[in-house]
Structure formats: C-alpha cells, structure tokens
Amino acid sequence: xxxxxxxxxxxxxxxxxxxxxxxxxxxxxxxxxxxxxxxxxxxxxxxxxxxxxxxxxxxxxxxxxxxxxxxxxxxxxxxxxxxxxxxxxxxxxxxxxxxxxxxxxxxxxxxxxxxxxxxxxxxxxxxxxxxxxxxxxxxxxxxxxxxxxxxxxxxxxxxxxxxxxxxxxxxxxxxxxxxxxxxxxxxxxxxxxxxxxxxxxxxxxxxxxxxxxxxxxxxxxxxxxxxxxxxxxxxxxxxxxxxxxxxxxxxxxxxxxxxxxxxxxxxxxxxxxxxxxxxxxxxxxxxxxxxxxxxxxxxxxxxxxxxxxxxxxxxxxxxxxxxxxxxxxxxxxxxxxxxxxxxxxxxxxxxxxxxxxxxxxxxxxxxxxxxxxxx
Length: 375
Hints:
The chain is an alpha/beta fold. 51% of the residues lie in helices and 16% in strands. The protein is built from 18 helices and 13 strands. It has helices at 13-29, 41-45, 62-67, 69-86, 97-109, 129-136, 145-153, 164-168, 175-182, 198-218, 231-241, 255-261, 272-278, 291-300, 308-313, 328-340, 343-356, 360-373, and strands spanning 4-10, 33-38, 48-50, 90-94, 114-117, 139-142, 158-160, 189-193, 223-228, 248-252, 264-268, 283-287, 320-322. The longest helix is centred in the middle third of the chain and has 21 residues, at 198-218.
C-alpha cells in the first residue's frame, strides 16, 4: 500500500470529534497514512501534527470575527500555500464553512482533491453558496438525508453518511439510570434547555422559567432540570431564578443526562433539538430573535420549518413556537400534554434515529478513499 497524505482542517470542538472519528476509520482501512492540517486534541491524539492550535479558528459571532479578521485571513493564506506545497492526496474541510470553503476552492484549482464534511445550511438560506461549493468541492459529505437531496438537485457530488450522534446515542436511553446518576427522584421531570449562548439565554431563559412556573401551578408534581452550558450561563440563570419558587435543579453541563432522565423538553431551536430527538424525548421548540433579525430571516429562509426534527421528518412533528407566539402560557399549554404523552413524537423520532444511524465515520472514510482511488 502506498503512503497516503491526508489534510484535514477543523475549526471547533464538534469538528474535532468528527475529524478524529474519520481519522480512526481511515487508519483501520489503510495502514500508512500521514495526517496534516489543523485539528484539536482528539485529532492530535489520532496522529495529526496540527500546524497551529485549533482554538485560533474558534470564533463565535460577527463582532469577535472582525476583531480577529486579519489573523484569520493571514492564517488561511499561509495554510493554503503550505498545503499546495505539501500536495496531499485529499483535503477534508470539516464544517467551519466560512473558513474552509475558500481553502477548498483554492486547493481544487491547484489540482488537489477536496471533500467538505458537514453541509452548511445552504438549503435554508444563502443558496447561492452552493455554486461556490460546486466549484470548490469534489465531494460533499452530509449528516442529514434532506441535505444530500438538495446537493443532488444542484449537481454537487454528495454522499449522506449519517450522523455520528445517532451512532453514539443508544436507541433506548435508560431513564432510571440517568436520574439515579443525577440524584433526582422518580416522578414527572421536564428539562429546560434555553440555549448555550448568553444572548439566547437572555431572550429565552426568563421565558422558559415563566412557562415552568405555569406548568408547576397546574401540575405541582412536575420537577425541572436545567443543564448550564458553562459557568457564565449558570450565573446568568441563577440571577433569573432569584425570587422564583420552582423545584428546579441546575446542572453543570450534563445535557445528555438531563435528556436521558427527563419526560419532556422545552428547548431552544438548534443542535440540541437533534440530541433530544435521539433520546426520544417529546419536545416543544421555541425561539426568539431581535425583531429586525427575525424579519430579515423570515424573508431569507426558504424552509417551512426551523427545527431539525421537523426538517428531518419533512412535516410538523414537533411544535415550533417562534417570536411573538412564544409566550409563557403558550409554551406551558403545549408542553403539558407531552409530559405523560408525546408517543406520536417519539415514534417519529425512533424512525429518524434509525435512518441517521449508519456508522458515519466508516461511511465517510469509505467515501474519501473512493475519491482518492478515482485518479
């Protein structure tokens, strides 16, 4: 077997997880591989020498990006030059589309094969980006089937590989074990998940707690659990809880345990909705943006749904309460029947889980090696 040189670039922790799984699967299929590029601690543990720390690429939010734009552009320029000189057999950009799509375009023009792993949400808005993807990308690997369909229609070579979380989360989560680990008693339990960013918690935290108080009033036996993404979120939520009387447990992280242990979830639209789906917990999805942002997005977004469960089901499987529709009363009224019910939702979730459970890292590795083999 000839030696392969594979370049990968991941920009954040979720990409590091995907990248390390892919590297492991590639090594299992091909004895002699050298990995170059940029990755985090997990990818380094699989044998990558990262050109610089991945943290330098993890920036959230427009304002933060502007402050670091010069550094990011210089790093990207240097990275492209280095990779063209190194001539890898393939380049794999993992997520981080604003950084990696441009690299793919330049490398492909220089004759290097390129793969993009995890589709940006082109199907929802900025559909023009698909033209750049078609020009810069030999192969798109998607986590969801509806994304693959979109690329096929636009003439981009694509393979749906499934979602690594669907592989990692069991088809049936053990509710009793999760509660025991959290030290929570039996009885109805609702998880509140108002998001992981300060802005989201600012818009949804108080709203979710108001809804919880209404639920508690109607059903005093219901308890609540709220996983805090980090210490800053915990402080923010503790301040929102002052003066409220709620049987609520704040957790540090542990969102997967909260999902496994609860009966129903009130949740912000985002990646966490996929986790709730995979844990088969009935949910109500809520979101609030600033009115200007909402107005702009309403005009840009091409999809009838915002939450992943509905996009995956291609129908209204879970209630979505957005903007002005997201009132404490509406959230409480919609969630209450799900505490003991929600079987229609969970049946739908189970079907979706099985379609996403394809052993993603191995599927992705096969697709990458298949591309390299096409001379």
